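Quick illustration, no need to memorize.
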Amino acid sequence: MAVTQSASAHWEGSLIEGKGNVNLDTSKSGSFDIDWKARAEEAGAKTSPEELIAAAHSSCYSMALSHGLTGAGTPPTSIDTNAKVTFVAGQGITAIHLTVRANVPGLTQEAFVEAAEGAKKNCPVSKALAAVDNITLDAALV
């Protein structure tokens, strides 16, 4: 069964001086202000496409890892994933670094890293971001 999700953006003005917002249309769970400064200067008051990509990647990755671990007979108690997306003006997204910490009873660190790498390779958002040459992973059990 295919599921289609929707978000929309509104922009006013030039790239540098302009501003806008993005809405999560399907879930109706929020509207976020966006501007160039959030992309280029790491301004904290507004979001950026890269922050939204980080949110999508960290959540998709956590779900994929949970699914893989459960399918292997070692369901996780908890998974915490952070995604850092690096944007360079004129180049685009140059790197993504995933950090995952999980509580998985009965699993060795080695087996966890193997499962974590598999989730990195196979989660749908990772696949969608395959054009990013530098996606790294730091995986550890807690």
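Residues 49-141 form a domain with the GMP Synthetase; Chain A, domain 3 fold (CATH 3.30.300.20).
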